[in-house]
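Progress against Task 2.4 (sequence-to-structure conversion) is shown through the following example record, which the project officer requested during the mid-term review.
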Amino acid sequence: MDYQKSAHAVYLCTYHVVIVTKYRKKCISNEMGDFMKEHCAYLLNRQGGSLISAETDSDHMHLLMELPPSVAPAGMVKILKTQLSKECHTRFSEHLSQYLYGDKTPLWSSSYFLATTGSTVMEKVKDYINSQRTDDHKRKYEKTGKYSKKKSRS
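Structure tokens generated for the chain above:
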């Protein structure tokens, strides 16, 4: 993954998300799963993010997504769950009626899994942070006093 840029930030914020169906009902068909992956990509793009990878099983969905730092991951998960539930109830109502009672029953459980991911190994980041006080990482310049206030002559 490449670092993303905005007007004031360079970032790489990636998240692994798992959402499960209400009562772990095995109601996600292959056709429905394909639609959900496409719709997630669309919803993430609208928020300035992107879908890196996604896969569904009969009762859950895994997402690997990238978001800008201005978008709260928990808020994005809420948007995804709400919009997917609405669209799936609209497009796959006959199929879902076999598993869920009524068209207002949420498709997703209220809980979810969310973990940050990164492009480097945690130990490398720790080592980098711990090495900041070594001689190798000292600043390239020393205070010279070049811009200090001149003493006034009395």
